[in-house]
Specification:
This protein is of the alpha/beta class and about 325 residues long. The protein is built from 10 helices and 11 strands. Strands 3-2-1-4-9-6-10-8 form an 8-stranded mixed β-sheet, with helices on both faces. Helix 8 runs antiparallel to helix 9 and helix 8 packs antiparallel against helix 10. The chain is globular, with a radius of gyration of 21 Å. The termini are far apart.
Length: about 325
């Protein structure tokens, strides 16, 4: 077991019923160039029923710097909060259970900690596949990349929760992640990491949120994510949850009638976009109709998701 005073990083790996994927992620975390005494890995099992506990136990026997935690309350935000509460490192790192990290990932992270000591930092993720991807699906659809230059992010840019490091004392100070947003079981949800970064900028404006392009992870694009219906749902949910994160008080929300008018306009643009896409799209830029729908038409689904949240929020209050 690593000594507490030597720990710079606690890596939190939250998982729910994805044992095979989680095991691959965990093994990549155990194969770091950094000495095991310098970090710990905490697997937070969010009420899985697929043998996750036993698989982690098997790995713990070989890698004593790995620990297992159980969180019965369903939801990624709950699991992430359980993870940092169990952590002992100066920083808490989060990756998804369908990711793998290169051998030097934590070594690069520790260089950032020593050199910059930001409140929050992270890097890009790039896609990999276990199944044949459709011809229309482009790698950039499964990529987060904020460029090739490291530096402090401005207020319009946010790090992805798929590859995120946060100073533990800051998490404790803020009370962790907002449990009203984010994934819950298999139900899509987003925004808990964005909500946290916004709070840091509002309440601790002198703290740095830092991007390091060398700090890459590989993120699995599962087969369902390459289906157009999933992409449409994801766009709607991302719009809904962005509204929840950015406008979290009733006084900031626009009038319901105006919301309905915006919804009608967005719906008409959605229908028009589908028709024009089939007939007049630029086929060099959008060789498949799916490219046009994904990149142009589905933007209106984000607007509809945002309006849906505005109207339903007002109805609840």
């Amino acid at each position: 077991m690593p000594q507490v005073e030597s720990l710079l990083t606690s890596v939190v790996l939250c998982t729910y019923n994805r044992c095979d994927l989680m095991t691959a992620a965990l093994r990549s975390l155990c194969e770091q160039t950094l000495a095991p005494a310098s970090y710990e890995v905490i697997v937070v099992d969010n009420n899985s029923t697929d043998g996750t506990r036993q698989h982690v136990a098997d790995i713990v026997r070989q890698h004593p710097h790995v620990r297992y935690c159980f969180e019965a309350q369903q939801g990624l935000s709950h699991s992430r909060n359980t993870g940092f509460q169990a952590a002992r490192g100066l920083y808490v790192a989060y990756i998804d259970d369908d990711c793998t990290v290169p051998h030097e990932w934590l070594d690069i992270a520790h260089q950032v900690i020593v050199r910059v000591a930001p409140a929050i930092f992270g890097g890009p993720y790039r896609p990999f596949y276990h199944s044949l991807k459709p011809r229309w699906y482009l790698d950039r659809y499964g990529t987060y990349d904020d460029g090739s230059i490291s530096g402090v992010l401005n207020e319009d840019h946010y790090l992805s929760g798929t590859n995120l490091f946060i100073r533990r004392s800051l998490l404790e100070q803020l009370g962790g992640f907002n449990t009203a947003v984010g994934m819950t079981g298999t139900r899509l949800g987003y925004g808990e990491e964005t909500s946290l970064q916004r709070r840091v900028r509002q309440e601790h404006p002198n703290e740095l949120i830092y991007y390091e392009p060398r700090l890459t992870v590989s993120h699995l694009v599962r087969p369902e994510k390459m289906r157009l219906i999933w992409c449409a749902k994801q766009m709607f949910v991302s719009g809904r949850d962005w509204q929840r994160v950015v406008y979290d008080t009733t006084t900031e929300r626009i009038h319901a009638i105006l919301s309905c008018l915006r919804a009608v306009r967005a719906l008409l643009k959605l229908i028009k976009g589908v028709l024009l896409g089939y007939l007049t799209r630029d086929r060099l830029r959008y060789p498949y109709i799916e490219n046009y729908l994904y990149e142009v038409v589905f933007v209106h689904l984000q607007t509809l998701g945002s309006i849906y949240e505005q109207v339903t929020h007002r109805a609840k209050h």
